[in-house]
Amino acid sequence: MERWEGRRSVTNADHSVRGGAVADAMTNTETRTGLTRALLWLVVAVLAVRQMAVVLRQPPGERLTDLETWIGENGVLHVTGSLYDSGRFTGTPFAGLVLKPLTASAEASLGIAWTFGSLLLVAALGVVAARALPAPVGRRTALLAVPVAITLLMLSLPVRNTLHLGQTSILPVLLVLLACFVVRDHRLQGVLVGLAAALQPTLLLFAALLWLTGKRRASVTAAAAFALCTAAAWAAVPKDSWTYWVHHVAGAGLGERPDSLANQSLHGALLRLGFEGPAEIALFLVLAAAVTVIGVRRAVRYAQDGQLLLAVAVTGCVVVAVSPTAWQHQLLWVLLAVVGKVGKRASDRLVWPAVVVLVITLPAKMLLPNVGLVIPVRDNALLVAALGAACFAPFLLRTSPYWQRPVPTDFAKPVAARWRRVPLLPFWRRVLHRPNLLLELLLIRVVYSAYAQVRLAATAGRPLAEEHGRQIHAIEQWLHIDIELWVNHTVVEITWLREFFDYYYSTFHFIVPLTILGVLYARRPADYRWARTSIGFATLLALVGFWLYPLAPPRLMPGLGFIDTVHGVQDFAKPDYGTLTTVTNQYAAMPSLHFGWSLWCGVVIVMLAPRMWMKALGLLHPLFTIAAIVATANHWVLDAAGGALVVSLGFGLTYLLSGPRKLVTEEKQPAEPGRPEPGATRAARRQESEDALT
Fold it and tell me: Which stretches does UniProt call biased (Basic and acidic residues) (predicted)?
């Protein structure tokens, strides 16, 4: 009996210690969550102020252009005659009646009120969407969902386009969400959906969703409200109603050309692909019918599963695809599809949200390169995302065993670092499995696009760049390493050598790093993550150098006699040296990423290649590269030293933040003396649990 009491006292003491540790951990977690939430709300405030400033700082003729077209001094709502005579008004006749009273407002005050009101609508939309997340929702998610939703909305292309144009497209989306998630009365739900459809007719598809999900009274009321609003507009402006509904077939053809890139509907995509006439119309109707049937059936299924927000998003994506015209400011439905869960593995859960966020927030040219095969996808990126959400994305049902418990990510244990304070980010956990290919391709493309944009934006005046060039040249003369002119003229005299270096300079710069990353991705995924991070850090540091120290390369230094073997003779009489500087920043020479990336390739090959001849071949690449950049007069020798520096810092930062490259799996970890094997540890824990229960 005394032995049992002693065991119970020890157990109680152990529980109290563990309970205190758990309480401390929960307190720390809540503190971090609170700080994160405050930071997110600060981001929301900053974005709101920035959006207001961006809109209102524009000259009167360049801001709120659609609103100005409607209600300005010479706007279509002011002048007599049809709303659609000028082709500048694309809304329904009912929308014209709603906007008509605003013509009496002062233009300056209306612009401020309109922009501020639009931001309030965005905030309300984010609140409603965040509150509509399918249950169960964790406490942390519930606290952070609203600011995250508002931030994503403000960063999205549709909202930015809406604020710039002064459009009304946020209002129909908000009306539908209020009907589905806030209002409980079925008749009022129908009225809200009917009003949204009166502003944008294809939203009447939500009446079908209401009917198929059992809300038939709301569905009938929506149709009746839409008909009543349309009839009222027809009675008030019969000529305009005839023009909109009959002559233009529900507004098709109004506004910009339907085959422009701004029209992200199936109709616009077919026109861009070369279809036209009756054949295009027939094909569009067939595809639209198929998308509608598939999408609405999926939406009904998700609604019955308790994922009503996903059902609304899928229906909205169907609306985007089947509308005759779906302009950029009407595509918010695609962003709402981010709530869908795709993938059985935890490591794959971020793939679909990341794709949606990237597509809806970045221009298509940043996502895909200007390559013939992918241009149709690039030009229709938003439509592809909408079709994916409506018809193809395999969203999980809540009844799936993977809904709350996905297959866990295979984390690995890092090798101990030499210094105690490495890694500086212990939460940066390393994994063994291969990262998702789609996300990696998007990441590489987005980083490269940002690199190209910053490199182009980091321009400076010609005098400053040439002054820096004279500084570098003087330092090299003092160090007796000013060999660029001799190498350049020597290579020019040897035709085959000049052609070789020209080809090497313009080709291998991209091919070799991408090949190495591809091989590592396929064969050594853990090393791929480490190598990818190091070259990413090196590139970011190089951008800082381009920005802070614009430098004219030897070929752009007048009076020194260098010959540009790659780009041809430059006209020094022109400040921009011809048209070349409109394509890229010619003063981004320090540091040299041509040499930096080649050095990264050599280091990675030497560290990871299994054969000595491979290591030797890897060392030749940076040697050939430094010879090429000097021979073609595209870089100074010190530019290569700068490239080596940023690559070294890239490797160093990766080591400091995430620790050594090597990882240890649980199976490979040597058993310490006196330490039981993992199986024995689990058995011991089960025994402790049984003892505690006893």
Answer: 685-694
Angle at 527 between CA 522 and CA 529, to 5 degrees: 85
Contacts with 107 (C-beta within 8 Å, 6 or more apart), sequence order: 60, 68, 72, 73
The SS3 of residue 664 is strand
Count Cβ neighbours within 10 Å for each residue of 296-331 and write b for 16 or more, e otherwise. Answer: bebbbebbebebbbbbbbbbbbbbbbbbbbbbbbbb
Which residues 6+ apart lie within 8 Å of 629 measured at CB?
505, 592, 594, 595, 635, 639, 640
**CA dist 240 → 93, 146, 236 (Å):** 6, 41, 9
**Quick check: 126 and 146 in contact, CB under 8 A?**
yes
Tokens of 364: 């298509």
How crowded is residue 182: how many other Cβ atoms within 10 Å of its Cβ?
A: 16
Contact 158, 332 (CB under 8 A): yes
What pLDDT, in 10s, does the model give residues 248-307? Answer: 877 777 777 888 888 999 999 999 998 988 999 999 999 999 999 999 999 999 999 999
Determine the average pLDDT of the residues in 595-624.
91
Which structure tokens are listed for 330?
Answer: 């009407």
Q: 197: closest CA among 165, 219, 166? A: 219
- How far is the first Cα of the chain from the last one, in angstroms, to the nearest whole number? 13
What is the rounded average pLDDT of the residues 618-644? 90
56 pLDDT band, cuts 50/70/90, is confident
> 104 phi and psi, to 5 degrees?
-85, -5
Closest CA to 433 of 347, 353, 373: 347
- Rounded to whole angstroms, the Cα distance separating 353 from 367 reads 15
- How far apart are the C-alpha atoms of 486 and 446, rounded to whole Å? 39
What length does the chain have? 694
Rounded to 5 degrees, what angle do the CA atoms 194, 196, 201 make?
85
Name the one residue in this structure whose structure tokens are 């049992």: 4
Q: How far apart are CA 458 and CA 464, in angstroms?
A: 13
Cβ(519)–Cβ(605) under 8 Å? no
Dist. CA 350–CA 494, nearest whole Å: 54
Neighbouring CB atoms inside 10 A of 52's CB total 16
In angstroms, the CA 364 to CA 383 distance is 11
The position carrying tokens 């540009």 is 564
Q: Strands 413-414 and 663-664: what pairing?
A: antiparallel
State how far the Cα of 302 lies from the Cα of 397, in Å rounded to an integer: 7
How is residue 687 written in tokens? 């025994």
Its pTM stands at 0.77
Q: Is the peptide bond prior to 201 cis by the omega test (within 30 degrees of 0)? A: no
Q: Which residues contact 364 (CB under 8 A, 6 or more apart)?
A: 378, 379, 381, 382
Q: Which of 80-89, 164-173, 227-236 has the lowest mean pLDDT?
A: 80-89
Q: How far apart are CA 61 and CA 69, in angstroms?
A: 10
**What is d(CA 517, CA 604) in angstroms, rounded to the nearest whole number?**
10
Q: What is the mean pLDDT of the chain?
A: 82
Distance CA 170, CA 385 (A): 19
Query: Is-contact 545 591, C-beta < 8 A?
Result: yes
> Which CA distances in Å does 165 have to 55, 114, 126, 158, 466?
9, 11, 21, 10, 42
For residue 549, CA distances in Å to 463, 464, 465, 536, 541 come to 13, 9, 8, 20, 12
Find all residues with CB under 8 Å of 6, minimum gap 6, and list them. none
